[in-house]
Structures are given as C-alpha cells and as structure tokens.
Amino acid sequence: MIETDVSTDPLWPDDTDWEALAARAVDAALAVSPYGSWANARFTVSISVHFGSDDEVQALNRSFRDKDKSTNVLSFPMVEPDMLAALANTDDGEVLLGDIMLAYQTCIAEAAEKGIDVAAHATHLLAHGTLHLVGYDHIDEAAAVHMEELEVKALANLGLDNPY
C-alpha cells in the first residue's frame, strides 16, 4: 500500500484538494516505475509531501544542497537506491520512502510561464519528485531522457499533457 502524508502551507489556495492531488501523482509515478507493485504490497510505503513556500525550500536547498535559492521541488530519499528492490521481500510494516517539498511562489510562476494550471504543474513536480525518491535522476542526458519519459507516461495516465 502507498500512503501519502500531506501538509499544506496556507499560501496554497484551498480551491484544490492538494492531498488527493499528491496521492494521485505519487501513485502514477510509482506505477510507471519498477515499483508499481508496491500499491498492492502487504507493507506500507509512506511518502511525505509538503506544499510549502519558496522561503522554506530555499532554506532546505541551502542546508542540504549548498544552493542559496529556491527551486520548484526538492526530494529527500530515505532509502538507498540499491535497497529498493529488497523491499519486495518485506512482509508488513512501514517503509518511509522519503519527503517531497514544493515551493508555492516558484510553482505559480512556472505554471504561468507555461500557460498551464497550477494543479497540473504541481502534479508534474510531484511525479518528478517521486521518481527521485526511487533512484531516478537527471544528472546526465540519458538519465534525464529516461526520467522525462516516465514522467510523461505517468502524467498521460492521469490525463495530463506532456510538460516538455
């Protein structure tokens, strides 16, 4: 089972069910990864999502990545990539997969630049962040292309357009 724990800064508008959006985005991203079977596992995979502010994200980015600026999404994996496959042998209990944080002001600005709905953009960023939690990255061109393909597939499964 996949459990998404969500917290939302008051900056984020209350016209969207951010908790449901996060759960759908996380589920869709995991479904297109090698870990799609976790949805039916006997153990619980828990992901924490925080819809935060640029200030919060900037502070984390500065502390953990030595980058003193905000960014749209940060992911903090709690399971080493080489241990992910071993989770299939887990019978019960809970696995804390990691944390994802979105920055409100950056998300709003990027959605406006792209001419898309903020909820659609947040969904994309959460799918992106979830893939980071299961070991995907975009450090080199080949890895970036593969990760983007998975994101596009996850979003298409949710009825959303290719963000690239």
From TrEMBL:
Source organism superkingdom: Bacteria
Metal-binding found in the keyword field: yes
SUPFAM superfamilies listed in its UniProt record: Metalloproteases ('zincins'), catalytic domain
Record text on cofactor binding: Binds 1 zinc ion.
Residue stretches spanning the membrane: none
Location of the protein in the cell: Cytoplasm
Binding-site residues for Zn(2+), renumbered to this chain: 128, 132, 138
Top-level EC class: hydrolase
Pfam families for this protein: YbeY
Cofactor(s) essential for the protein: Zn(2+)
InterPro entries: MetalPrtase_cat_dom_sf_prd, YbeY, YbeY_CS
The family this protein is said to belong to: Belongs to the endoribonuclease YbeY family.
Function noted in UniProt: Single strand-specific metallo-endoribonuclease involved in late-stage 70S ribosome quality control and in maturation of the 3' terminus of the 16S rRNA.
Protein name: Endoribonuclease YbeY
